[in-house]
Structure formats: C-alpha cells, structure tokens
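Q: Could you fold this chain for me?
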Amino acid sequence: MKWITREHPKIDRLACPWLIRRFIDPVATIIYVPFNDVLSKAEQLNAIPFDIPGVEYTHYGDECTFDYLIKKHNIKDEAVYAMAPIVRGADTDHHELAAQAAGLWAISAGLAYNHKDDQELLEKGLFIYDALYSWAKYLQKEKHTGQPFENLLLDVFNKFLKDKKGTGKKIPAWAQELKDLIQDHIDTNLSLKELSKDLSINPSYLSREFSKHFNNLSFGEYIRKQRIEKAMELMASTTHSLTEIAYLTGFSDQSHFTRIFKKQTGLSPSDYRKKNRKK
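A: Sure. Below is the predicted structure, expressed as structure tokens.
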C-alpha cells in the first residue's frame, strides 16, 4: 500500500506514517511530494493521499489526521490513545492539550531543520515515535529521581527560603489560622473545579462523591496523603534534609509538614526517618 502527502514533514506527516507502519500496514510506502503534486501523483501511483485538505485522511474539526487514522482503522491501543492529544497539540499549536506537546513540536522542528531529505527525516522520525509509544505504554508513571526541576526547587529553597529570619513577633491566632488555610490551598494545588472540567463532571457532584471512591477521604485529605507518601519515599531514597523534603512535597512551612506527617503516620518526620534507618 502506498501513501502520499506533502513534502517537508514535521508532526502529522511523521506521526501518521509511524501509525500506518506500526498498526495498519508494516510495509507501507510513504511518498513525499510538493503540495501541488499530491493529488496527481496519488492517482498516477495509486497511492492514498493524506494530511492535505479535501481528501479523506485529513483534519476534522479540532482533530488532526493522526486522530482520523485511529478512528478509521479502529485502532484499540491505550498507548496510542495517550499519544493522540500530544500529536494533536503539537500539530495544531494547542500545546495546552498535553504537557508533552510543546516538546514534541520542538524536537520535530529541530529534526526537520537538521535533515532536508524527507525519507531520511521519516526514518529518524519513526525512532522518535517508537520512543514516545514506549513512554506512553510503559513509562507514563515513572519519575526521574534527582531531576533538574527538583534540583532547581532546592536551589530556590536554599537561596530564598531557608535563610529567612523570623521577626520575633508573636503571630495572632487568627493569622496562624489564616496561614494554615493558605498552606492547605498550597498543598492541594490541584483544584476539584479544574479537574471537574477535564472530567466533564459537575464539581459539586465530584466533591460529594469523591470520598466514596478514595478510601473515605476528602479531596484535600487524599492529596495530603499522597504528598506524605512521596515524602516517605524521598526519606528512603535520598539524603535530602527534612526541610528540603517538606519543600519538595509542597509544604512550604516545615511545621505544617511535621503536623500533617505525624497525623498521617503517628510519628514525626525525624522519628520516622530514624526508625527506618535502624531496619
């Protein structure tokens, strides 16, 4: 089977050949020609035109050709479904659709800049989409321990937060309570309202039903539990100080971290670390 599209591919015209080769026709021939020659060459070569206006395999509404191929050929693969918004976001300049979309665009643009031969570009592109597929299938939940972002957070912490001195003034009860409320919002920076939009569920219903499916915990309690579990993981796998761990897990106030940690585990962070080091 032959497939034909416009020359100088970047996103859709590399992602679609990858999808075709991996899920539709392993020996498909991909042909790149100037835009004005696509339809005439398609007829001459008995090839299927794709990713140009006016043909079957093209963009529909907000979706790109990659989306159409998935639907047309009834591809049932969760990793491919995870890739679709990334490809769509990169191809349509809607990088908000997926956290990886901007990165895919940047890599694809750089690849096209470095390789002027379209067939050579295609072969390199297939490697990129194989890698993206492996990430989507096996590695989505993997975290890169000691990632630069974590180091940057620690840098900011050590430079701007750790050295702050107290004023020595007694904090009024109302101010402390307000501080705790603000801290609670920092800890739960995921918003039920925003999540309800993503899930297309009424926020009031989501708030009411959340605890039924999350171990009888409210949304805030559940998020704090996740942060404490992350802190425990960092204690076991890193040499970060407890103050740094508190910061890295979203507790900008260590006293608040200690209080929540003890509430969750029955031990203070320092006692927990000492106990686990003895094992």
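A (continued): The beta strands are 2-6, 29-33, 48-49.
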